[in-house]
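Aim 2 progress update. The chain analyzed this quarter is reproduced below.
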Amino acid sequence: MTYDQNRVQRNWGPRVRDFTYHGLRLVTLENELLRIGVLAGKGADIVEFNYKPRDLDFVWLNRRGVRNPNNFVSTSPDLNATFLEVYPGGWQEIFPNGGGPSEYEGAQFGQHGEVCNLPWDVRVDEESEQAVQVAFTVRTLKTPFVLERTLRLETNDPTLYVTSRVENESDVPLRAMWGEHLAFGRPFLDQTCRITVPDRLTIHPNQEAETNDRRLSLKSSTWPYAVGAKGEEIDLSRLPEPGEPSDWAYLSGFTDGWYEIEHPEKQIGMRVEWDAENMPYLWYWQEFNGLTGYPWWGRNYVVGLEPFSSVPTSGLQKAIENDTALTFGPREAKTFWMRTRVIGGKR
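Predicted structure tokens:
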């Protein structure tokens, strides 16, 4: 662990700490209620979202753990493995490609683009008794963007405040996908959890699935009831027993971006709010121990609830074709805000 000696370090209230973990820089933001672990050395991934009064972590972590992309060599590299084989779980910023591999203006992107595998710079903007605020910054390699993501905790507040800014540093107009890849898992998540979203959202099943073994049909419907692959009604607000097939869906129709995911028995959950203007879709990843092949091998029970600018999960070129990709004019910047708050729980 290393400290900047010019900053005040304390063992109570809001504070920032700086570690090295598997050769990667790991920065933690804490207050009395939350500890947020940010893997600055790889994607600024949030690999811990711990509610301290219950010692309960909300984000799902891959059982393989953290792998350092700087010293990891795939046995058989491909454009999906660039993400999957160093994916620790948790929460990633996704830009400028979302989902599967895609090509754009001569640049070839692997799964989920560039920034999730790059090291980010760190700047501590505030560390006081009232709040801590840290900015993480990265420049893309294949495209001319700079992205800054600022995380903030305030004293005695179970909320992580996120503000982000992306700028096109070129004189060329560009297209991009932008998303927040949140994955929930154990010890928080199980089949008793419930999901709440605004009324009357439209459910769009993933049309790009490459398997016949799927949970949902291709028919759109209104939340919470989807049409199952066998024509049955499926309540997507309720999670199934382990063993159901994996699938994807997209939710649209947000005026205000928010959802809640709660564990009734544990009487705790999380409310996520975001800027639905730049991210009007919610990707709903469903992995219920049902995928028995690569990459999960039937071992993971995970739900991803991911605000996104665009659809589908098959990459930027498809999003350009359906005109859901963002457009950045020359030197144009876009901003985004998000709040994630623990609800319920006993302090």
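The domain at 15-344 is CATH 2.70.98.10 (Beta-galactosidase; Chain A, domain 5). Confidence is low (pLDDT under 50) at residues 1-6. These observations will guide the mutagenesis experiments scheduled for the next reporting period.
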